[in-house]
Design a protein that fits this description.
By secondary structure, this protein is of the alpha+beta class. The chain has a domain at 23-58. Helix content is 14%, strand content 12%. The protein is built from 1 helix and 4 strands; from the N terminus they run αββββ. The strands form 2 sheets. A two-stranded antiparallel ribbon has the order 1-2. The longest helix is centred in the first third of the chain and has 9 residues, at 11-19.
Length: 66
């Protein structure tokens, strides 16, 4: 049998709890190699550098028109 709350939480208590559950703006930084916007602690998607070192190879992708 599931447990049920013993007493009703007031509206103020419920709203105070929910006030801290909010969306936060994503923090972006500039890549020192190519100056693109990058999420911190991740490799740059445009140049493949992380902490001054090449960690991923970027290859040119051919686009063909149909």
């Amino acid at each position: 049998m599931p447990q049920e709350p013993k007493k009703k939480h007031s509206k103020a208590r419920k709203r105070t709890r929910r006030a801290s559950i909010n969306l936060q703006e994503t923090v972006l930084q500039r890549c020192p190699n190519c100056n693109a916007l990058v999420v911190p602690h991740q490799a740059c998607k445009s140049c493949g550098f992380y902490r001054g070192k090449q960690v991923t190879e970027k290859t040119a992708v051919k686009v063909t028109k149909v």
